[in-house]
Design brief:
Strand order of the largest sheet: 6-10-11-18-17-16-13-12
CATH class of the largest domain: Alpha Beta
Number of strands: 18
Number of helices: 12
Number of domains: 2
Structural class: alpha+beta
Radius of gyration: 26 Å
Strand content: 25-35%
CATH architecture of the largest domain: 2-Layer Sandwich
CATH topology of the largest domain: BirA Bifunctional Protein, domain 2
Largest sheet: 8 strands, mixed
Distance between the termini: 30 Å
Length: 435
RNA sequence: UCCUCGGUAGCUCAAUGGUAGAGCAUGCGGCUGUUAACCGCAGGGUUGUAGGUUCAAGUCCUACCCGAGGAGCCA
């Protein structure tokens, strides 16, 4: 069939009130009465109700209208008019209707479904209004990430996905075969960003990250997207400030561009997001431990915060907060040491309130070659794999710092949804590789 | 890997050890303004799999399979 390139997208429908236009889309809902059909059509940019009145259209068209099924693709032609009763405020009095392709027994009905059922049909689930809103918010966050760093003079430097070794050596990697040798899917672009920082000063990468952890929680994916800035001649304080301003910017852009989706489709309490203004409350690990104990929460100095600890701590705040200077023993080998206290690392996490937890993790890197070599050995990592990384300390070593932000965790937090799996178009989980 | 919970109609869920049900979806009928429309009727089942206990098992026992949430790990 010929494509009408003059057809109207629904998000522009208000500009065409009183005009005759052509719409193309999918049937979201068809309500049939004796002399009236209400067909709600969705084209990805919006929804529009078409009204088909018996007697005002020919019998063949009336028959087509009466038998429309959910998600059939259709073309409608008719006059657009404002109407208070129509969703979106505008509706079409349809004069022509063509079924482009019928949809039979669409599996996702307007009623409730379980997570497994929906995830098995993720390719169709994406069409629903909530998932559509999440796609839009994710897209806005992706754009905002690039805008933020670009406006501050950062250069995007893409990190490789295939890597010959563990970046951090602590978590499980996906192993693959690479022309006869072992390769791993990247779990972080950070080490490469350290190299990039010496080339462009302020670097960031943004891409997929893989963790083969057998996590079964709503806060973990095996494949997720992470943005990782790295800044030469920056210290821990600089990084906390950057992280706070970045966080504020991302949340701000989401509210600015999608208040309607957040308040409407997602039922998000936007007032909580409006409290996200830098600087955030900051507390040291020491203080955090003291605070946990003061709250009657047993926690021993030296351990990492578990999820319950994080939640307890987060209850003290109504906006994101920063915890810094964790014990070096629980952090990655490349983390710098606190000159004030050798037990501590120059690390920081940004945690979101309302139970969302850690969204950013990072800190200042160790720049001393001998220290790093010792750390690699201590962590049982193969030193030969880090030759190039040590070079960064051999040829003009420099203080630098950076962090990683999990995109899906930010999408989840901004949107107010419960589970990370809805924050990515096609989630990869321990028990899910498809669709 | 460990702990907890679950698996019954296409979907979401009920069902004291005693005839397997409802809502939605689907089909048919009704309704001139519906908003998850509403009203009536109908079809729809190897209760995850394999054993076992019992006069009798969706229900109790054992093993296994699948999934969810949490722990650990982290973004």
């Amino acid at each position: 069939m010929a494509i009408d390139h003059l057809h109207t997208w629904i998000h522009e429908i208000a500009d065409h009130a009183g005009e005759e236009v052509t719409l193309r889309g999918w049937v979201q809902k068809n309500r049939v009465m004796k002399k009236l059909v209400f067909c709600v059509v969705r084209d990805g940019t919006g929804i529009c109700q078409a009204v088909i009145t018996r007697g005002e259209v020919d019998d063949a068209m009336w028959e087509r209208a009466v038998s429309l099924t959910q998600e059939s693709s259709i073309e409608l032609r008719g006059i657009v008019q404002a109407d208070q009763r129509a969703p979106g405020g505008y509706e079409m009095q349809a004069r022509e209707l063509q079924v482009l392709s019928p949809s039979v027994d669409y599996p996702i009905t307007p009623k409730e479904h379980g997570a497994e059922f929906l995830l098995d049909r993720r390719h169709l689930w994406l069409r629903s209004s909530k998932q559509h809103a999440l796609l839009k918010i994710r897209h806005t966050l992706e754009r905002a990430i690039h805008d933020f760093f670009h406006s501050r003079g950062f250069t995007q430097v893409d990190a490789p996905i295939f890597t010959p070794n563990a970046c951090e050596g602590t978590t499980t990697l996906f192993e693959t075969e690479y022309f006869g040798q072992k390769a791993y899917l990247s779990q972080s672009g950070q080490l490469y960003m350290e190299a990039a920082a010496a080339a462009v000063g302020k670097a960031y990468c943004f891409g997929p990250t893989f963790r083969a952890e057998k996590s079964k929680t709503r806060r973990h994916l095996t494949e997720f997207w992470m943005v990782e800035p790295e800044v030469a001649f920056a210290d821990l304080d600089d990084m906390m400030q950057l992280a706070e301003e970045f966080f504020e910017y991302l949340v701000g852009r989401s509210v600015e561009e999608h208040r309607d989706l957040l308040e409407g489709t997602l039922d998000r309490d936007v007032s909580m997001l409006e409290k996200v203004v830098a600087p955030f409350p900051r507390l040291s690990y020491d203080d955090a431990v003291r605070q946990l104990n003061a709250l009657g929460h047993d926690f021993e100095w030296g351990g990492d915060f578990g999820s319950p600890d994080e939640t307890k701590l987060a209850e003290q705040f109504d906006r994101p907060f920063v915890v810094h200077r964790f014990p070096a023993a629980i952090k990655a080998f490349y983390m710098g040491r606190d000159p004030q206290d050798e037990r501590l690392s120059l690390s920081m996490d940004v945690l979101a309130p309302e139970g969302y937890g850690e969204i950013i993790g990072g800190g200042e890197r160790a720049s001393d070659l001998a220290y790093l070599e010792a750390q690699v050995e201590k962590h049982g990592l193969p030193p030969e794999a880090f030759g190039w990384y040590f070079d960064l300390r051999r040829y003009g070593s420099f203080p630098h710092a950076g962090f990683g932000l999990g995109l899906e965790r930010m999408v989840t937090y901004v949107s107010g949804i419960r589970h990370l799996r809805e924050a990515i178009p096609f989630p990869r989980l321990i028990h899910r590789l498809g669709p």
